[in-house]
Amino acid sequence: MNTLLSKRKDRVGLASEVLLLLVALLFLYPILYLVLASFKEPGQFYNPLAWPDSLYLGHYEKAFQKVNVWSGFMNTFAISAGSIGLIIIVSSMAGYVIARMPHKFFQFLFYFFISGMVIPLQTGMIPIFKMGVALHLIDTRSFMILLYTAGAIPMATFMYSGFTKSVPREIEESASLDGYGKFRTFWLIIFPLLLPATGTLIMLNIYGIWNDLFGPLLYLKDPAKMTLMAQVVQFKANNQSIDYGPIFALCVMATLPLIILFFFTQKYMMKGLIIGSVKG
């Protein structure tokens, strides 16, 4: 009887794995098609099932000729890195203070931060634009960094506050006995223990910031300051053609850094999610 049950469980498990593999391939196929199509010759481009006969680089050459790819990449990298860095600095300190201070004011501050998560982005577009004009920040990368930081602080503070509560207070007391101040204790002792939360935070925010299209199109006017995603759309709109080869090449170049980043940081993200689910 036990043998029959074990065999049935094995079959169900095998069928589940095959089903999940098929679903994964279904989601991965568009990415595979994007990469393969960017290397196809024009005559072969619109055949989705055909593999490229050779490594055709004409689409990439045309993309570099008509679009300042390096400028777009540097703008995207600067905005993404600046936003992530500022989010980590502000949210980690805010989450630490809120988690460690029992005063009601800090509890109110915590709920004040959390309330920012329920405000739709669309409701603040016009006020944000007017504020940027009044402060002379429209068409600047700094304005984009501040916008992304403000949008991510509520969730990031919530995460850091939860992770900080899992750190024993005895560690801070020992550091205090060794002559460490609050600021030094946090950055040298507490913050390294929050690396799983930091890795998770980076992965949760970097994709939205890197791939954002609406923000740069709305708040940036100078073509020299445009990000990669905005360049892809402008290239399609300005050329007004159906030559999707260079567009696919631009999309591959815009996606590749995120794929590389995921491979290097996925263990921190998984660890952070597991710890968060257990400690929460």
From TrEMBL:
PROSITE patterns: ABC_TM1 (PS50928). It comes from the Bacteria. The keyword Transmembrane applies. Keywords: Cell membrane, Membrane, Transmembrane, Transmembrane helix, Transport. SUPFAM superfamilies: MetI-like. The keyword Transmembrane applies. Residues 73-265 form the ABC transmembrane type-1 domain. One of its GO terms (cellular component) is plasma membrane. InterPro entries: MetI-like, MetI-like_sf. It is a multi-pass membrane protein. GO terms for biological process: transmembrane transport. It is found in: Cell membrane. The chain crosses the membrane at residues 12-36, 77-99, 108-129, 141-164, 185-210, 244-264. Belongs to the binding-protein-dependent transport system permease family. PANTHER family: ABC TRANSPORTER PERMEASE PROTEIN MG189-RELATED-RELATED, ABC TRANSPORTER PERMEASE PROTEIN YESQ-RELATED. This is Putative ABC transporter permease protein AmyC. It comes from Cohnella abietis.
